[in-house]
Amino acid sequence: MTPAPSARVTTDATAEPARRVAWADVAKGLCILLVVLHHVVGKHLPLVVPDTAAGAAVVQAWVAVDTALKPVRMPLFFAVSGMFAAGALRRPWPLVAVRRVLTPYWTYLVWLAVHVVVFATVATAIETHRVPGVLEGLTHLLLAATGVWYLYALAVYFVVAKLLLAHVTPGAAVAGAAVVSLLASWLPIEGVNRYSVVHCFVFFLAGACFPRLLAGLPRLRLPGVAALLTAYAATAAACLALGAPKSVFSLALAPVAVVLGVQLAMAVSDRGWAGGRAAGPVAALGRRTLPVYVLHMPLLGVLHQWLVDAVYANPDHGDAVLTALRGGAALPSGAEPRTPYLSGGVPAVVPGGGAARDGGAELLVALAWAGYPLLLVAGLVAASLLTHRALLRLGAGWMFDLPAALRERAQRGPRLSGR
């Protein structure tokens, strides 16, 4: 998510002229959409869907979709990021340290502070990792645990990859990273995001070490895609049957998932989908993933907080909001909320499962809610990009890139020697 003017990759160590990878920006655009969808489904959707059998089915269906896409989302994102970094890994430190290390880490620090403030003040209801104190906050400087961990990972992954490749072969480096990723479930790591920092390094390193392999994947025809889907389903079923830990599950599925993700990106980027018309907006989004990544969660948190306050903390307004969310069905007297799920004891689903309603009408409302996550994803992406534009106009470009003064100072300061 560091600023990148074009999706180019150097395909060998001699630094040949980079060639355009047509699907790469599309892949990044698809990945950031999946990231936003993941947060909408996991952190927000249960609050607003009506508490009915059909409503529960909507939530369960979206959770199943999100779970199925998990082996694609971050592995593909990091593999493409590694592919973009391949050429930089072969250049001397002075030429790459500012852009590949200092810039993403600076952006991580800025948005870590923003997220800490937002989720401690104006978005306290949404479930997310929070920093409870100064000492805990200091640990985040060394090992990320909040929702902006990807930026931290970009900086750290590049440093570790460059140091590794100065001493071992690419194959040995990737093999070692795969072992660490495989064992991540058994390591004493607290928090899902810190686990992800350890687990996902192998995908970045594989993309960086073997960019030609990823960039040169052929476009498969329908039988090939069907075979990959079958392999994906069979591997997932085997892992579930054996009770495989999540690190084993993810690493077993990721290679097939990444290839499937690339195939989808290829389909969007050429005439295979709507005459290629879908590629433009998705590729443009792929070149602007940073503002969406850092802004969508605060925006979602504010929306989530408004709904919580309107429904649960405002008796005068709450009934009207509940009725609207339930598709017009009035809340029955004495209705009790479900078991709390959200932080602060806020019920996970809008109360009122006992409301009398026609089964057909209930189904129609549930079907309407089934499209809500997609609409909200589109809204959050648009709002993030608009907020980014507004911040740039207000002179806050330093929130998304290393300030020029710091950049010049870093370039004039002591330089790392060697590769």
From TrEMBL:
Membrane topology, from the record: Multi-pass membrane protein
Protein name: Putative membrane protein YcfT
Organism: Nocardioides perillae
Listed GO MF terms: O-acetyltransferase activity
Keywords of this entry: Cell membrane, Membrane, Transmembrane, Transmembrane helix
Alphabetical list of InterPro entries matching this protein: Acyl_transf_3_dom
Superkingdom as given in the UniProt entry: Bacteria
Domain (Acyltransferase): residue spans on this chain: 22-310
A single GO cellular-component term on record: plasma membrane
